[in-house]
Protein: Histone deacetylase
Organism: Saponaria officinalis
Amino acid sequence: MRSKDRISYFYDGDVGNVYYGIKHPMKPHRICMTHHLVLAYDLHNKMEVYRPHKAHPTELAQFHSEDYVEFLHRVTPDNQEEFMAEMAKFKLGDDCPVFDNMFEFCQIYAGGTIDAAHRLNNKACDIAINWAGGLHHAKKWEASGFCYINDLVLGILELLKYHARVLYIDIDVHHGDGVEEAFYRTDRVMTVSFHKYGDNFFPTTGDVKKTGEREGKYYAVNVPLRDGIDDNSFTGLFKTIILKVVEFYQPGVIVLQCGADSLAGDKLGCFNLSIDGHAECVRFVKDFNLPLLITGGGGYKKANVARCWAVETGVLVDTDLPKQIPDNDYIEHYGPAYSLKIPRGYIQNRNSRQYLSSIKTEVMENLRHIQHAPSVQMQEVPPDFYIPDLEEKEDNPDVRINRRKRDRYIQRDDEYYEGDP
């Protein structure tokens, strides 16, 4: 056991000022609400608080295609009519609209996750938190599911520079498809996603039988769940699977995406989890005492999201929060009870004991196929990230080397690049 965890917390108030649109369910303002609860409970005094840097376009292109990053940089609500072909190509539209300061928003939340990875790599902290991050649906060349830049993939790529094996865990109600897809063919990253599956629920991926390809075969773990799962069923399955995953895989670092749309009553979710049940997963992962990167994710009832992530910040700093919410700038959002508790879920639990047992059995059988703690050859550690004033030219050797290092670990188009450049 570590005597006292050193915790880095990343927050930029500008991330909560953007607006997807009047009828859009994604409200980045929930990040501001979370932060003000953190302040109201004095949790900031138990952490090192940082304002993240804004990720440079060349950093974002460590995973995303350069033409996609350039498009996000250029398009605005005022000029989007000029980019209709690109809008269709890169899947921007109703779910992923163009809005004011969209690219800066991406730079801030991605910068927070990249900075968190850097501090973990340099052993400057034991736990790093970026509630603004966790946008797990974005693909290499397209937006998806309210996500434009996949900060999680970028953070994991940074962690791979210092860690032979990275474990990614996702408890969002939606499948973590963008992260799984990026690392589907490598054993350097194991992805484990607990999510609703079936009934054409977005993004319609995440079958238990989808386990990875080539070197990554059996290193993608999917736990497909049905409507209405409750705390006991979810946490019991979570603990059993994650304990075995950590035992088999022996990761050097864990990335945990804490999407709060798996809470009861979420506008887009269909689970019955309480905040205590959700937070129990965070507590369980923390107790492995491995370097830990925590992000947010989905969550579409703002007050509940803020409650949840504040409680989980408390878990990470070993502090139980009083249920009565203290006065803060957004206190009116928590009435009339002004409590951290949320109403229980009433969706019928369609996860029978037999169904959950069958899923657990299949996951455990898949894990038996993997090599215990796969090894990796020694290699030069690449730079942390591109230097912002570096010229972005194909003939620049630093850019070329960085791209080749990156391509060892991610699925790229229809090919998987590996080995020395």
Notes: Strands lie at 7-10, 48-50, 127-130, 166-170, 189-196, 220-225, 253-257, 292-295.
